């Protein structure tokens, strides 16, 4: 499955939700995205430290 296909599936599911369900879903996805971004930033920082240490 491509990222585009995954996005299309999620969008079609969201269209079937009522407003309350959609709001809960969006809030959950926003929190997950923030957590993922933090994890990515930490990994990049560790890689940067490792790279600088190995010079």
TrEMBL record:
It comes from the Bacteria. This is Uncharacterized protein. It comes from Candidatus Ornithobacterium hominis.
